[in-house]
């Protein structure tokens, strides 16, 4: 009989008990249902990343004793979740005969007007903890505490502690049109779509046009875009939008210089210089081969310096100052990191690199800031302008009557040498990176090279770092997609020096993180989509839906045991699409580009013939299901090349038959592109995130042409249910 759980002998081992107490998985169930135990040395390494010593048997026992005592070290946990509209109870670790008292200060600074009552808790029998006896009382948090991040102050005897009380809605409510029907939109890697006025890479002005045109010309209600998190200030720029420098800020390389308000006030000479810089990269807009971000930024950055040095009106300076005050210490961290990169060079993991030698409190960093005040302010200014232009794009979407407008993508983590990690190292676990275990599409597993947030730090600080990220994204978006949403529950930690397979899951407080998402989405009247592909335990999918997050239904992945589900049987609370950015567009997938490319890059665990045979079975099974459902004509299968567009539209027609609340078509499928944007498991072996939008014949499709394109118009008619 196949083993499905750990033996009692294994469960009795101190190392296993310590790992479980610290939220470290000691086994997992793989995509095919296989039971996989985690090796001891992996557990020891991951515990070390959490600051727990398990290097010897004696260390394990000592860490177990400390972990047991930690449960009673605070009067109440540092972070508390309260569901608005429901009464909740907070357990207090008070000594016998001590009576707790508490007050609640709301996020606006006012005190909750009613007293916080204390009642007997569940633990009637005193627990000996060291030389103390702990008995649990409970504080009653009233149902009418408003939404927000509040401060609960608890006093027992002569001891007082503060905790963050997060009052969140039970779930994210569906938008009104989604309650009785669905909304549809486009998915775009918007940097890949250039206009005649672009600087070689799609920018915020292009995004603004795309949003307006997608609504006016196709009737779309949203546009799901790649992450726009902050990147490097100087070349070479990291191509992947999923490996940002900071998730707290916006990528200022997407600024359109001519759209900065101060550009209009420049002298003729200054405008001519910016025009000259623009001309040096304008021809890249017609390059269908590869996006050149470095050429773009080498031209655009001096243009932005020209605008910055021209100054601002007093009113605009006040707006800039207000932005800096609101962004606070995190902006100082990012701007300082940019300055250090600018003057000291790209940070590396090598000994002697400034990121290894200096921290935020180093004298050298203070001297750098005082030596280059204008450059430091330039990087603050770039963030302000980027924030303004992204806000303008979303306002354009609302002005065009898009229901959601922008749906921004949240990356799993950040660059290990980025500003978030350097300025605030205490937020992260060291000696580990995040990735994913092996699955069918990535048989070696994945290592995303991102240090994980430390769950202990998050809990100790009211999850403020995570709150700021989510609130920042909803400031200029009607929706947020969470890449690898299972990271709200657990992340696959890979100890330094090990392969992607040699990791394990570390668990997070999903209730609190989902509560924060529900709170920020409710405040923004927005939606949240959780990318829940891959190895997803059933309880996690249920929890996401219970909190009002939509999952993902990818048509190619909606199968079990080689049989595709009818779209009518898909989950209702999903964003449904035919494809995703990690596999080729549909025109490429139908011609087995995913097999050919993986074989070319030596990513297959078996032979090309075996993988191709599996791919053909999958291909035939999907098209057979579509033909049975009347979404395509069976005769088209006799000449798929001739009926490529018909087949792609038929696959999207199937989306419209599903109960999914959000439907999405990619602009790559709209124009017939075949090349994948990203091939997981590669870095420089493939030009990931550098593929310009082109049609099936390799001709560039511009922003101006995109939503007037006959093929795009035809697919839009399918998405509207008209064809």
Textual characterization of the structure:
This protein is an alpha/beta fold. The chain has 24 helices and 26 strands. Strand 9 (148-156) and strand 10 (159-168) form a beta hairpin. Among the domains are: 8-70, no CATH class; 83-168, Immunoglobulins (Immunoglobulin-like, Sandwich); 232-405, no CATH class. It starts with 7 loop residues before the first helix and ends with a helix. It is an enzyme of class 2 (transferase). Keywords: Carbohydrate metabolism, Coiled coil, Glycosyltransferase, Transferase.
What is shown here, in short?
It comes from Bifidobacterium tissieri. This protein is an alpha/beta fold.
Low-confidence stretches: none
Structural shape? globular
Strand arrangement, major sheet = 21-18-15-12-11-26-25-22
How much of the polypeptide forms β-strand, as a percent range? Answer: 15-25%
Which class of secondary structure composition applies to the elements?
alpha/beta
Strand tally: 26
- What can be said about the biggest beta sheet? 8 strands, parallel
Helix content: 25-40%
**Could you report the average pLDDT, rounded to the nearest whole number?**
95
Distance between the termini: 52 Å
Give keywords.
single chain, 723 residues, 4-stranded mixed sheet, Immunoglobulin-like
Question: What is the strand and helix layout of this fold?
Answer:
Layout: H1 8-11, H2 14-21, E1 27-29, E2 35-37, H3 40-49, H4 57-70, E3 79-83, E4 88-95, E5 101-105, E6 117-120, E7 127-129, E8 132-141, E9 148-156, E10 159-168, H5 176-180, E11 183-188, H6 204-218, E12 222-225, E13 229-230, E14 246-250, H7 268-282, H8 293-309, H9 314-344, H10 354-357, H11 363-371, H12 373-399, E15 405-410, H13 419-423, E16 432-436, E17 446-450, H14 455-460, H15 464-474, E18 479-482, E19 490-495, E20 504-507, H16 510-524, E21 527-530, H17 538-546, E22 551-554, E23 559-560, E24 563-564, E25 574-577, H18 586-589, H19 593-600, H20 608-628, H21 644-656, E26 662-666, H22 667-671, H23 703-706, H24 710-719
Parallel strand pairs: 3-10, 11-12, 11-26, 12-15, 15-18, 18-21, 22-25, 25-26
Antiparallel strand pairs: 1-2, 4-8, 5-9, 6-8, 7-8, 9-10, 13-14, 16-17, 16-19, 19-20, 23-24
Keywords: Carbohydrate metabolism, Coiled coil, Glycosyltransferase, Transferase
GO biological process, one term: carbohydrate metabolic process
Protein name: 4-alpha-glucanotransferase
């Amino acid at each position: 009989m196949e083993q499905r759980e750990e033996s009692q002998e294994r469960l009795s081992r101190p190392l296993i008990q310590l790992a479980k107490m610290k939220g470290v998985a000691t086994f997992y169930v793989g995509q095919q249902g296989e039971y996989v135990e985690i090796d001891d040395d992996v557990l020891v390494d991951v515990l070390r990343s959490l600051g727990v010593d398990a290097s010897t048997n004696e260390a394990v026992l000592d860490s177990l004793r400390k972990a047991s005592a930690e449960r009673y070290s605070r009067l109440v946990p540092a972070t508390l979740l309260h569901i608005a509209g429901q009464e909740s109870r907070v357990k207090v670790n008070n000594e016998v005969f001590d009576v707790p008292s508490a007050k609640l200060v709301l996020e606006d600074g006012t005190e909750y007007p009613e007293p916080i009552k204390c009642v007997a808790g569940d633990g009637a029998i005193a627990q000996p903890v060291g030389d103390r006896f702990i008995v649990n009382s409970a504080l009653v948090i009233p149902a009418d505490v408003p939404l927000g991040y509040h401060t609960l102050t608890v006093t027992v005897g002569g001891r007082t502690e503060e905790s963050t009380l997060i009052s969140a809605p039970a779930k994210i409510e569906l938008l009104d049109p989604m309650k009785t029907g669905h909304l549809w939109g486009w998915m775009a890697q918007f940097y890949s779509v250039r206009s005649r006025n672009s600087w070689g890479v799609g920018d915020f002005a292009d995004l603004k046009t795309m949003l307006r045109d997608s609504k006016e010309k196709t009737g779309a209600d949203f546009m799901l875009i790649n992450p726009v998190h902050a990147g490097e200030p100087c070349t070479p720029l990291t191509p992947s939008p999923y490996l940002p420098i900071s998730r707290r800020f916006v990528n200022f390389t997407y600024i359109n210089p001519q759209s900065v308000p101060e550009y209009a006030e420049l002298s003729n000479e200054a405008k001519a210089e910016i025009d000259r810089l623009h001309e040096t990269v304008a021809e890249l807009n017609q390059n269908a081969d590869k996006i050149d971000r470095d050429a773009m930024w080498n031209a655009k950055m001096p243009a932005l310096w020209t605008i910055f040095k021209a100054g601002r009106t007093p009113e605009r300076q006040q707006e800039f100052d207000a932005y800096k005050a609101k962004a606070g210490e995190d902006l100082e961290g990012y701007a300082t990191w940019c300055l250090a990169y600018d003057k000291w060079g790209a940070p590396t993991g090598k000994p002697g690199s400034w990121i290894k030698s200096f921290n935020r409190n180093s004298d050298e960093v203070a001297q750098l800031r005082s030596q280059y005040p204008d450059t430091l302010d330039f990087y603050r200014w770039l963030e302000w302008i980027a924030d303004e232009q992204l806000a303008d794009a979303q306002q354009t979407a609302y002005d065009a009557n898009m229901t959601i407008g922008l749906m921004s993508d949240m990356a799993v983590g950040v660059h290990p040498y980025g500003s978030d990690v350097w300025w605030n190292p205490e937020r992260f676990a060291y000696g580990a990176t995040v990735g994913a275990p092996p699955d069918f599409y990535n048989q070696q597993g994945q290592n995303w090279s991102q240090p994980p947030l430390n769950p202990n730090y998050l809990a100790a600080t009211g999850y403020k770092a995570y709150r700021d990220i989510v609130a920042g994204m909803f400031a200029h978006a009607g929706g947020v997609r969470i890449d690898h949403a299972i990271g709200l529950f657990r992340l696959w930690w890979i100890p330094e020096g090990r392969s992607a397979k040699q990791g394990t899951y570390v668990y997070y407080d999903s209730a609190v993180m989902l509560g924060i998402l529900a709170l920020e989405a409710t405040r923004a009247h927005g939606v949240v989509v959780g990318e829940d592909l891959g190895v997803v335990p059933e309880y996690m999918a249920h929890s996401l839906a219970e909190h009002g997050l939509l999952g993902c239904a990818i048509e190619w992945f909606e199968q079990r045991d080689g049989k595709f589900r009818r779209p009518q049987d898909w989950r209702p609370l999903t964003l449904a699409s035919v494809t995703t950015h990690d596999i080729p567009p549909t025109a490429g997938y139908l011609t087995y580009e995913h097999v050919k490319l993986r074989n070319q890059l030596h990513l297959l665990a078996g032979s090309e013939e075996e993988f191709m045979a599996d791919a053909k079975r999958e291909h035939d099974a999907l098209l057979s299901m579509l033909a049975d459902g009347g979404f395509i004509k069976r005769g088209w299968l006799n000449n798929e090349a001739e009926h490529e567009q018909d087949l792609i539209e038929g696959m999207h027609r199937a989306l419209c038959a599903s109960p999914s609340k959000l439907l999405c078509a990619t602009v790559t499928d709209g124009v017939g592109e075949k090349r994948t944007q990203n091939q997981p498991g590669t870095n420089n072996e493939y030009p990931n995130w550098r593929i310009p939008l082109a049609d099936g014949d390799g001709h560039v499709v511009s922003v101006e042409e995109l939503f007037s394109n006959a093929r795009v118009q035809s697919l839009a008619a399918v998405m509207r249910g008209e064809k």
